[in-house]
Amino acid sequence: MPDTFSSRPRPGTPPKVLADNLTSRLEATYNLLEGMSKQPLIQDTGVSVMDRAMSMKTYADAFKFWMIGVVDPDGTISSTLRPKIGKVERDYIPRIMCTGTRELSDPFSAGATGEMIFTQFMPVKKDGKVVSICFVSIPLTHMSRLPPFRARTETVIFFCWTVGIRSSPIRTPVN
Predict the structure, then answer these.
(1) Alpha-carbon gap, residue 131 to 150, rounded angstroms
(2) d(CA 89, CA 100)
(3) Tens of pLDDT along 109-159?
(4) How many Cβ atoms are within 10 Å of 116's Cβ, its own excluded?
């Protein structure tokens, strides 16, 4: 049986398989974020941002996410990694609040640890209006350790992240 939990692709693995697996992982995380964003507690900005973030700890633990959090329009933020309230000023906040669309960050150095991470953002809407943003942040080195969302019996390689990528999570072949 093939090693479907390998952290590195097998030699000769087609780039399309690698890209499809990464795309599947990202889409599955967005689906989870979308479900969380529809929870009444997450939508309730009367509840502290820390309490809303910590309500997602079960998901962080179950899916082995490094950090799940919530950020409000004024930059008030909290996460499962550091259960405290902070303030940030980031360009994605007004953009997502205005457009109401999900986003994927470029890899960047995490302030908490210095590790290279990427973040997936999902607007939290209440009555059709964006009221907050929930997010999942994952260090690039953690991608190979995340459990698959697909059934183990599939023959594709689930984890296709090559640790040590410096600029882009997907490398495409030069034709």
Answers:
(1) 32
(2) 18
(3) 887 778 888 999 999 999 999 999 999 998 888 766 555 544 322 322 333
(4) 15
